[in-house]
Amino acid sequence: MPAAISIPQRLDRIVRARKGEPGAAWLAALPSVTDDYLDRWQLTAERVCEPGGRTSLVVYVRRADGSPAALKVGMAAPETAHEHTALAHWDGRGAVRLLDADTTPEHAVLLLERLHGDIPLRSLPEAKAMLEAAGLLQRLWVAPPPEHPFPDAGDHARALHDLLRTRRELPAVAAADVLPLVDEALEAAAGLLASAPPPAHGRPDHVLLHGDFHHGNVLAADRMPWLAVDPRPLVGERAWDLAWLARDRMETLVGSPGPEAAVRRRLHRLADSLEVDRTRLRGWTLFRTVEAGIRCLDAGDTAAAELWLEFAGRL
Asked: How many domains does the chain have?
């Protein structure tokens, strides 16, 4: 195994915790799989990115012509199965450019334009970061290609709604005294789903979504100041994507004087700047935040759950 290839501690810890023995087997094979793609695509490894991805190994490489790139060897998963298809459709407009791709049942391997992985959008002051993020979303929200493979955001939301309704019965949820908040989130999501127009290709409010858009998934670049990475692409309404951005840096908002007013101002600014309905943005932000908080509570991560649910309470 080349000295340049090592498994970052964060990747090792998260994959083992989430996937158990299958994850350990995937990690054990990862160096040899990476070596195979280095040979296949005539790449020279420079260094492994630290801390790198949560479910992928990222290696800075040089191509045969000497140009820089990044090799991403990720664990195959349903939510990232169409990452390469979305990146190819965007073709560098607002997102990292895809140079090559190959997928197997175990691995999703991408060769990407090299960005500055140690400079996320989170490094900017909040107001400037939100302005840059909004500009990127305007570029990313394009019509999907005909006969596209991307899941529908409404179907994804329904599945999460059903899962949250099941988790509502957990003893930990009752103990945390958040049942009214969970019920409000479930009611909000049900209303949004019921009032959403049916999906149709070419409809201006039914676009390709990033799916996991936040400041940590936007990196500094040379070709443009900032580019998005790590999409979990869906097709649906803009408010679904914007809701995930709306809760970014929530620890700052909940810790500010007058947190309810601060949260309301953020939602209104984002909705107005991107021409998204305020009510739908507030509803999806509430639902996605509560769902994430209850998921953390179910996993035993009470500290994270408390932060998510406190932010949701400010909505």
From this structure: 2
Largest CA distance in the chain: 60
Question: Rounded to whole angstroms, what are the CA distances from 37 to 25, 50, 147?
Answer: 18, 20, 30
| Residue in 91, 100, 183, 212 annotated catalytic | 212
Whether 277 sits among the annotated catalytic residues: the reply is no
- Let me know how many helices (H) and strands (E) the chain has, helices first: 11, 10
Burial of 300 (0-12, 13-18, 19+ CB in 10 A): exposed
Which position has the token pair 């060769």? 111
Residues 97 and 65: their CA atoms lie apart, in Å, by 17
Same domain flag for 156 and 260: yes
Q: Domain end: 114, 141, 161, which one?
A: 114
Say whether both 199 and 213 belong to one domain. yes
- For residue 39, the Cα-to-chain-centroid distance in whole angstroms is 30
For residue 30, give its domain range.
Answer: 9-114
Asked if the structure places residue 168 within a domain, the reply is yes
Q: Do 194 and 244 fall into the same domain?
A: yes
Query: pLDDT 10s per residue in the chain (315 long)?
Result: 444 588 999 999 999 988 899 999 999 999 999 999 999 999 999 999 988 888 999 999 999 999 999 999 999 989 889 999 999 999 999 999 999 999 888 889 999 999 999 999 999 999 999 999 999 999 999 999 988 999 999 999 999 999 999 999 999 998 888 999 999 999 999 999 999 876 655 556 689 999 999 999 999 999 999 999 999 999 999 999 999 999 999 998 888 888 999 999 999 999 999 999 999 999 999 999 999 999 999 988 999 999 999 999 999
How far apart are alpha carbons 263 and 248 in whole angstroms?
11
The answer to the question of residue 1 being in a domain is: no
SS3 assignment, position 124: coil
The DSSP call for residue 157 is H
- 239 with 309, same domain: the answer is yes
